[in-house]
């Protein structure tokens, strides 16, 4: 029984990690005026989304999915310049002083991997019997799991590349990628469905 549970847990974690780039906390704005805030979208298709702890929500009931729309005050140019210099100094210190394995852990924090793993474990906790929860806590540790992934990144990326990745995900472009990827993937899936639908209808004529 324990072996079966371990296999299920491992499989679910692998699936969530594969789609880590597409799974981030978002707000779901429904057409009836209700808002489901800071939820994890764990599944998408052309007709609905699946939200952790809330189940399936059909597109026809959704107004939009995303962050709160609010205008942020523009910073003064002088302030931006000071911040840029500060960031450059901090970056140089990070490259010189911080070990590569610690930088990789930092990368997991900014690219959504850490949050995804933690939320996946939390979701798993809600899906298993109460008597198995203590066993799961002993088996699965988010910090240990992330550390086990460090050698993979260590092998594939140099220290300088890890620094560049951290800098990218902290940039406006990187933040936009993380924020907008789920919405873009929705559009990609709809476009794919439309493409194959037209191909099938064309072949049937």
Write a brief caption for the model.
With 205 residues, the chain is of the alpha+beta class.
Describe the overall structure.
- The chain has 205 residues and is an alpha+beta fold.
- The protein has one domain (2-68, 92-204).
- Helices cover 65% and strands 14% of the residues.
- A five-stranded antiparallel sheet has the order 4-3-2-1-5, covered by helices on one side.
- The termini are far apart.
Give the CA-based shape. Answer: globular
Q: What is the oligomeric state here? A: single chain
The helix fraction, in percent, is 55-70%
Number of helices: 8
Secondary-structure blueprint:
Layout (H helix, E strand, L loop, with lengths): L1 H17 L6 E6 L4 E10 L3 E4 L3 E4 L3 E5 L10 H21 L2 H11 L2 H15 L2 H10 L2 H15 L2 H12 L1 H33 L1
Antiparallel strand pairs: 1-2, 1-5, 2-3, 3-4
Helix pairs in contact: 1-4, 3-6, 3-7, 4-6, 7-8
List keywords for this structure.
8 helices; alpha+beta; 205 residues; five-stranded antiparallel sheet
